Every structure is written in C-alpha cells, then in structure tokens.
Amino acid sequence: VTLGGDIEIADKIVHEGDTNTAIRFPAADTFSVETAGATRLHIHTDGRFRVGCTAQPSGTVGGFQLDMGSYPGTLRLMSGAGASATGESAGISVGGSNHNADISNGNNYGANLNLYNYNSTDGNSSAVSFMNSNGLSASRVVGNNASHSSRTGNLVFMTASGSSPTERMRIDSAGRLLIGTTSHTGHALSGSNNSKVQLESASSADYGRMSFVYNGNDSVGPGLWFGKSRGTSIGSNTVVQNGDQLGGFFFHAADGTDKNSRGASIVAYIDGNPGANDVPTKLQFSTTANGAAATT
C-alpha cells in the first residue's frame, strides 16, 4: 500500500482476529495502546506518559503502574493492592559494571543514582523521602548543598514523630557525625578541637546519654576502646613514647561564656619506655580546685 498523505481514524486500529487489542485515539490529543481489552499505555493531552493506568497511580490498585509527567517533572512507579497487600511491591533496579574499586572516583561506580538541584542558592537540597499509606513523609534523607561554589555539603537524616520529619542526625562537610545538633560550633568543648562524633540534647527524656548493652552467654561485657599511635596515617602502628596520652574521660561545664572549662579528668598515660608487647601505663585522676582554671 502506497500512501501520499494522512490516514484519518475515528478511534482505533484493531488487530485482526484479536478485537480486544488495539491502538486508540480515545479523545483529542490522546493516544493509548490496549491489550486484552485493558489500557496498557496512555499518553495524555498534556504529554503525561502512563503505563498500566490512565490516571495517577494508586497503591490500592494491583499491578504495575508508571506515571511520568511533563510538569513538574514527576515520575511515579507503583504496584500494590491497598493497605492489606502482603505480596506486591514496586522496585527500581539500576545496573552497571565497573572493575575499579576506588570509591572516591565517581566514574568507578557500576551503577549510579544522581539527584540534581540546579538552583544555585546555598543551603538548598535534594532528598529521598519515605512515604506512608497517607502519602505523608515518615522519614527522609537529605543531601544539603552547604555551598555550591565550594562544593561542600551535609548528609542529613530525618524522622517523623506525629508531624513532618525533623533532623535527627547529620554528617557534616568535615566528616563529623552530629546527633541532636546541626552545627559543631555550639557543641565545641575545646577552643581548638572539635570531636568527630558529637551528641547534644535538651530533653530530659534522654539527658544526652548513651548506653552500651551486650547480650551473650559468655563472660564478656560491652566497652569502649581507646588507641594511640605516633603515626600520621590511618592504620599506622608507630610506637608511642613515655608520657603519651592513650585516652581519657574529660568533664566540662558551662561557665557562662562557653564549655571549655574542665572540671575533672581520668586519663591514661604511657609511664615508661614502651616496646613490643610492653606498654607501661598509669591512670591519672585530676580535678579542678575552687578558683582554679585547670585540673591538677
């Protein structure tokens, strides 16, 4: 068949001998594909592309549903049978292959998921939200752009407790783990150093405390491990020297200006000349006297 112009069809093109399979034009500026009498693909007048549905996907409808909008650029993928469903879920798999194990190089990933924010305002973000059956966010992971120009960012973890998710923990641009605080500056207990892990609270429900519990049918209990070397690289085992501090507990108090003032300490020091499997150590207890500015 040779045609020199358009073919005008009122509604559908039907597969011969299979009348419930068709290509349709069900309304103006609308296109759909049907198999077994059901719409499998639907392109709406506004350019919205849908597979397995003709309206916005719903978790109460069984089977695969895909919705990609022309504006505001949304994509919805759903598969389910409502609140009582037990066997259906929707998933996205991204595959790739790369032999290089250097995770610091973004070109070495086998598969990638990139979230962009093209607005250059510092402090904005991109996020992954976890929604409940009411369509409300129960938790969220946020990539915060602290500064676009200097390429600094924070990774923020949020959870909800009866209302919109709020921040619970973050890894800041310096690699510090902050729990209960959004900035290291207000939590600093030293004028020159900031802890790698910081926890702060203003709630009497937890008093800013931590607990360690081990359950096991043996004689071992939970503990904290402190280690020190004279090396300057991760994993170094350079021998320590007499007088080196191995670790300690330091007790600070707010004095109306900051929390740099130390009230007491329990510190372990090397006490002699160390060698292979020989680390003589002393434990020193110190307190600050009334009117003094340092422990003794």
Description:
This protein is mainly beta. Helices cover 0% and strands 33% of the residues. It has no helices and 16 strands. It has strands at residues 12-15, 18-24, 31-35, 38-43, 49-51, 64-68, 75-79, 125-131, 137-147, 152-159, 166-171, 177-179, 197-199, 245-253, 261-270, 281-287. It has a seven-stranded antiparallel beta sheet with strand order 1-2-3-4-5-6-7, with no helix packed on it. Strands 8-9-10-11-12-13 form a six-stranded mixed beta sheet, with no helix packed on it. A hairpin with a 5-residue loop joins strand 4 and strand 5. It is elongated. The model has no long low-confidence stretch (mean pLDDT 88).
Q: How much of the polypeptide forms β-strand, as a percent range?
A: 25-35%
Could you tell me the radius of gyration in angstroms?
31 Å
Q: Uncertain regions: pLDDT < 50 for 5+ in a row? A: none
The dominant shape is elongated
- What distance separates the N and C termini? 102 Å
Number of strands: 16
Structural class: mainly beta
Mean pLDDT: 88
Number of H- or I-type helical stretches: 0
User: What portion of residues is helical?
Assistant: under 10%
Largest sheet: 7 strands, antiparallel
Task: Identify the strand order in the major beta sheet.
Answer: 1-2-3-4-5-6-7
What is the element string, with H for helices and E for strands?
EEEEEEEEEEEEEEEE
